[in-house]
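Action item from last week, closing it out:
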Amino acid sequence: MATGRFSDHTDSKAKVCLGAIASPHGVRGLLRVKAFTDLPEDIAAYGDVYLEDGRGFAIEVKGMIKGMVLAGFSGVTTREAADALKGERFYVDRASLPEPEEGSLYHADLIGKDVHDPTRGLIGQIRGVFDFGAGEMLDVKPPQGKAVMVPFGQDAVMDDQGLLIMAVDAVWLDDDAEKETNRKKGE
């Protein structure tokens, strides 16, 4: 088991989630892992990984099985030890990742950024990035109202102040507040 900790375990921007442990595999402590990296086998490419509670592990990728990575985590040698890790997410220090390619960024770098539409202005702050199979979606919390999911389009650009500029079609926005204002005007 690795002995280090995150450079700043309390700062979510200092860590990037590489995957989640789905289930044990066999009786010798192997784990089936859902990888969140572009190449699934890259979960072991950035050094030791850490759980939310700070426990660290070296990972050895053993292969692929039914779309999941089959991996050994250091110190996990029994099915019971592997089962105790089921559902855990694992992270690396952000600093251990290479800089993203030109025009790319890590999902973790989007969290907490404001989304601005060129015509509508501030849409809200990004709380999460998801991919349900039809493309990436941003979970955005507007200044008022409930959170909305908006597609993360190719036209999105990060400006010099760290604002994400992108066109957001009104169909994706929660317009309950606007409907309420219009209803009151009509009374």
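Closing note: The longest strand covers residues 15-25.
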